[in-house]
Amino acid sequence: MKVGELDDRVVYCMQRLGEDAKAYTPAALPHHAVVSEEAGEAQTTRTVLQWNGRELAVANIKVKDALREARSVPVHSVEAKVLEGSGAVTVGQMNKVLDLMDRRVNYYNDALAHARQDLRGAAEGTAQQTQLQLLVHFFLFQVAAETLSRNLFLAEVHSRRFHATEAALQSSAAAKGRKGDILPSLYASPLEVVRLYEAANESVGEMELLPGVTGRADVEAHAAVCRAGKLLYLGEAWRVLGELAKAKSCYQAALAVLQEEGPTSAAGKLLRDRNEQSLFVLTAMEQTAAAYHKQAAPPAYLVEATAEEVGVAANVMRFPPDFQAVPFKPVFVDIASTFIDYPE
Length: 344
Hints:
It comes from Strigomonas culicis. Helices cover about 60% and strands about 5% of the residues. The longest helix has about 45 residues, at about 125-170. It has a two-stranded antiparallel ribbon. Helix 2 packs antiparallel against helix 4, helix 4 (about 90-120) packs antiparallel against helix 5 and helix 8 (about 215-240) packs parallel to helix 10. The chain is an all-alpha fold. The protein is elongated and about 155 Å long. Strand 1 and strand 2 form a beta hairpin.
C-alpha cells in the first residue's frame, strides 16, 4: 500500500511510534470476515466510477473520503424544495442552496487535487497512469458540472426576481406605496439573467474540452438551455426598452434553439413555456401599438378643433398669437423736398 493511500491520522500515529509507513502492509482479514460472492459486491469497500464507458477503480483513501463527502451533501433535495414554488426566492433560501453547492464543489476540488498528486507520481506509459488521467478527467467534469448547476440556479433565481419586479412596477398597489411581492432591494434586470446564462455556457465549454464529452446528449441539452435562456432574456431586455421588433427576433431565435435541440429537461420545458408567454405578451403589445397609431392625431390648437371634437369652438381666440412682423421705429426720408421751390 502506498503512503498516499493512508489516512493522515494513521501516518501520524506510525511516525510517532517510529514505524515505517512505506513498509506498512495491512493484515489479512480473518476467515469469517471474508465477503463471499453470494453476499454480493454491495458490502465491499471498493469504489468504482463510470466514465466514458470505462470503470475507474479509486484506491486512494483521501479521494474516497472526498468523493463520499461530496455525494452526501443534499444539494438537489434542498434546491428542489426552494424552487418548488413560482414566486421570488428569498436571500436566505438562496444562500442556503449556494452554501451546499460550494461545499460540494470544494469536496470535488479536494478529490481532484489528490488525484492529480497520484498522477504525478505514476510511472510514464503505464496502465495506472492512464487510469489516473481518466480519474482526473472525471473530477474535472464534476467540478464543471457543479459550477454549471450553480449558475443555472442563480439564473432561475434572478429570472423570478425580474418577473416579480416587472409585476410590482406595473401594479397599482406598488404605485400607491403598498407592500408588493418583492422588496425594492431585490429588483433584478433581465441583463443580469443574460450574464448568468453566459457564465453557465462557459461551464459547458469547459466540460466539452475534456476528451469524450463533446456530443453527449446531456451536455448538448445543457448548452441548448444556456443559449435559449440568454436569447430569451435578451429579448426581455429589448421589450422593456420598447424595441418590439428586436425582442420578437430574440424570442423566435430562442424558440428555434429549443426546438432544434429538443431538450427534455425541466429547465428546457420551463424556458419553452416562458418563451411562449413572452411571445403572447409581445403580440398584445404590438396590437396595442398598432391601434394607437391608427387613431387620428389630435389638433395642435383648440381653434383648429371641429365642433365634433370639442363641442364649443365659437369665438375662440388663438393664444399665444402667431408671429407677425410689424414695423418698429420707422425712419422717413423726404427725397422730393430738394426739387420743390417755395411759392412766391
